Amino acid sequence: xxxxxxxxxxxxxxxxxxxxxxxxxxxxxxxxxxxxxxxxxxxxxxxxxxxxxxxxxxxxxxxxxxxxxxxxxxxxxxxxxxxxxxxxxxxxxxxxxxxxxxxxxxxxxxxxxxxxxxxxxxx
Length: 123
Prior knowledge:
Oligomer: single chain
Number of helices: 0
């Protein structure tokens, strides 16, 4: 029912900024809680950020708090992840996901996932 396509990944240097986008299909996009997760090579997938469908409530992993900002534009069916002060430890494949559950901090509640976009931060 929902298809998600991430974009905006790439190679950047430590301290730089990058904005990821996730384009979603479906007329009911505005009713979904959205989240960003990431998976580094040889690591398990971990929670990064989530945003309520009303756009007024967000949660962040401690590792990105103060550096990353999640936002959404329901008119464009798009979710964003603004990443500032990037560190090499942020290197991972970043996935956007959609769920109808709140809170959106638990990946097991997400039913829809994008294909992922690679973010590489060099030192």
